[in-house]
Amino acid sequence: MPSQVSDHQLGDALLQSAAHGAFPQDEHVASATVPSSALPKLLEVVAKAREDTKNEVRKLSTEAAPDVDGWIAQARKLQDDIKRSQETAKDIVKQAEAGKENTARVQDAASKVSLLHTEIAYNESLAQAVEQLRDISTLLDSAQNAAVHGHVIHAIQILEDADGAFQRLGPFTTTRVVGVLKNKEEQLKKAIVETVTESWNGLISVDNTSHRIALHQSIEREAKVDINTTIEALTKLGLLDSFVTRLSRDLDRVIIFPRLAMGTDRVVSAFEIQEDVIQRAGPVNDGRIKATLEDIHLLVEFLSTRLPPSIAVPLSSKVIPIVASRLISNLLLPAVPLSTEGIPHFQESLSYVLGLVEYLDELGWSGQNRLAEWVDKSAEIWLAKQKEHAISRVQAMFPKTVREKKTVERVETQVISKGDALHAGDEQEDDWAADWDEEGEVTEEKKQTVEDEEEDMSAWGEDDDVVDDELKEQETKEKPADAEDADDWGADWDDETDTKPAASPKPARTIPEQPKTNGKPASQKQPANQEVTLRETYTVTAIPDAIMEIILQVIAEVDTLNSPELVKSAIAPASGGLYAIPSLLLAMYRATAVMHYSKDVASNMLIYNDCQRLSDRLRLFLQDQAEKDQTSALPQHLQPSKRLKPMLESDIKSVDGFGKRAYGREMESQRQIIRDHLEDAQGFQGCTNVPFATVCDDAIATTIDRIGDVKRQWQNVLSHSALLQSLGSLVSAALTKFVTDVEDMSDIAEDESRKLHGYCVSLATLSQHFQTEDGNGETRDMAGIYTPNWFKFQYLSEILDSSLADIKYFWTDGELKLEMEADEVVGLIEALFAPSDHRRRAIAEIRRTSMT
Q1: What digits encode the pLDDT tens for the residues 576-612?
Q2: In what helix (H) or strand (E) does residue 408 lie, and over which residues does it extend?
Q3: pTM recorded for the entire structure
Q4: What topology does CATH give the domain 669-848?
Q5: CA 154 to chain centre
Q6: How does 682-701 read in b/e, with b if 16+ C-beta sit within 10 Å?
């Protein structure tokens, strides 16, 4: 229960809350309940508090009364000041309104004054413009009057004054009256131009019908008209250049072109001069350059004497370039001699050209610089024409000479030993002829991998392992400066691009120290050196000799140009440039040979032979020329052996490489055909099964026939030894494919073994292509010499038809181990014989005794 709170406490709490907003601090008072009986007491407390407050206010008011009266007095005074300020502000506003009205009146008056000034100025300018227009009209009338009476120059001057007056009109230039006057001026100018043009056409008369041009100094019209006045008028009108251009075209059409060029009627027309008239005449009887230059001299003299300098000089800048262009293209260029015999006459023509240039210089004419420059470059032009002519000659020559074939002989002296393979079965000195080829190579090594055989280049020794260091150094040298104009642009012109030059031919190689005859080692004897002369014939076209003929002509021309008769000619400085022609011809040959030879069945072999022939002749030429130059009167820098040697040595390598690439393409093509024939047999698996047995038989037969066909194609082209080497490479490819296919067979039945042995017998008939006669007339089989894997193939044939004991004997007591690896023999034994103790012991013995 809450404790009892007195009415007095409740009244105090109520007053504190009303007066100060304070909440009762006493917990009992705050939570006390206010009964209705306490209300009278609370009202009494509130009433008493209100009375106390009123009394306090009265007391304070009484004490502050004097201050309040002062405040009231100040407030009234402030109110009076505010009223006065408001009245003053109203007066100021009234005065400001009155000032605006005055300003507006002043501005209005000023604008009216300005307008009056503008009107006055406009009226004055209008009056001035009217005066100017009257003056312009007067000027135009005066100009018209002067033009009517023939005073053209005076009329033009008046029109110039009128133009100045028009420009001074300012804003009135767009008015209608000004437009009318300008239109009148334009009509007057047009009339004056027509008059001047008529005068020009009268003074310079061009008759296209009769092909004549007349140049008059003056003509009679209403007044006398002279050419100087007309030229002055055209100059003032700005038309002189167009009239001069038209005159230059008329001169070219009527006189210059017919004289310097052949027309549609294939006739060059002359011209004749009679006083003031130049006219086309009949055909030219003398087509020499001298006569032509004399005619041009007459034409220039005619123009310079009949025309004043004011028109002749500008006319020259248009006419002389035309004359120079037609003279160079139609006369001078065709007159450039193709041989040294015509150089004196050409030198005389150049002197005439320089004479014409000097005459034009004396006249002060322009445009003749092109003629002088052409004379200065005549040596270069002659040299360029020589190169062009040489190339055109070989272009025309190749299609004809490629059909002309002949047999040539190559002779070479070599030192060989009796230990050479050439003497393996015989010590006769004349046995070398059976094995020599164009490169001096005799045989290939009998032991050669499949990869080497695939890339066979035996005809020139590219399968050698060692490349001469000196040749390498020569290949890396830069091309000489003289060859810059003869870049090897034909080096890559073949189906199988090979940018590296092939190795140069090397001396003859011998087969291993123990060459075999019929599978047995030949007796060894102490080698004895002897010098022999090797001779062999092969077929070439006429192209190499034709190229050499042109090269020899070039050398002769160099010598002629430096002779006392021509050494001081304008062409003599070009003599050194002739040495670039051989490289150009050889590059042209390499670039187009494939196309020209393509119609021949043995095209690549002919290319190979021609390249060998060409390189041989070039080498011989350098040797002979070096001897001749020892007594030559030419300066050293112009001697062929000094100047040509670096270029020709590089060209010889390029020609040799080109021929070898052609040979390589042909050999690879034929090898691929042979491999494709044998590929039809599909490894000879099931060669006894019908009908596949027929396919295998056909594969062997077509291979043999193909090699025979190739021999017939090549035997009239290649030398005998080169033919044997090439056929040996093809036979080697066929045998390699056959041996590989047989070795790849994991199981060979007895009937298959017999069938494969029969194939070996058939393939062995290819040895017929390698039958040669020695010095005693005896036939020798050279298949083992020219076919690297021939003895390996023979051993394979024996293995297919032998017992296990025979095979073991071949290995241990024979020379099978020299031809086959132990793994190859073991593989064949495992394929041919069923597993047994005998087979196991034979294999073990073979592995044990195999050569490392």
Answers
A1: 888 899 999 999 999 999 999 999 899 999 999 999 9
A2: strand 405-417
A3: 0.65
A4: Tetracycline Repressor; domain 2 (1.10.357)
A5: 63
A6: eebbebbeeeebeebbebbe
